[in-house]
Each structure stands twice: as structure tokens, then as C-alpha cells.
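Hi C.,

You asked whether I'd gotten around to modeling the 66-residue construct. I have! Everything is below, sequence then structure, no commentary in between.
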Amino acid sequence: FFPRNAILFYDENDKVFEILEICFECHRIDFNSKQSLEINDMCDDFYSKLEKFFKDNSLETKYIRK
């Protein structure tokens, strides 16, 4: 697991209260608070949809060897 992307959740005081680390290569997600959640059971094609969102916003999701 080597996450290269993350989603930060902010509270009303602009303090990060949760971090969702994402690895698009191994399709694993970890929460900073160690929440237990199986994303794949919740949504069809979750990773492909999330990866498209990242790419549509000019964010790289996978390591590309040069």
C-alpha cells in the first residue's frame, strides 16, 4: 500500500478532522482514524469513478515510470 492521493476533510474551523488515503494501483483506502469501511461493497466502479474525478481535475493517480 503506497497511497499517492488523499482527500482531506475539514471542520468548520478549517482543521483537518479526517484523511482518506487512496492507492489506485492496489485499490485500497485507509482512513486516518482507522475507520472500518469496505468501499467496493458500497458502489460499483468506485475506484474508476474516483480516479476519473482526480484526472478530470488534473491530478495524477498512478506512478508513471519515465
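If it helps when you're writing up: The helical segments are 46-56.

Thanks,
B.
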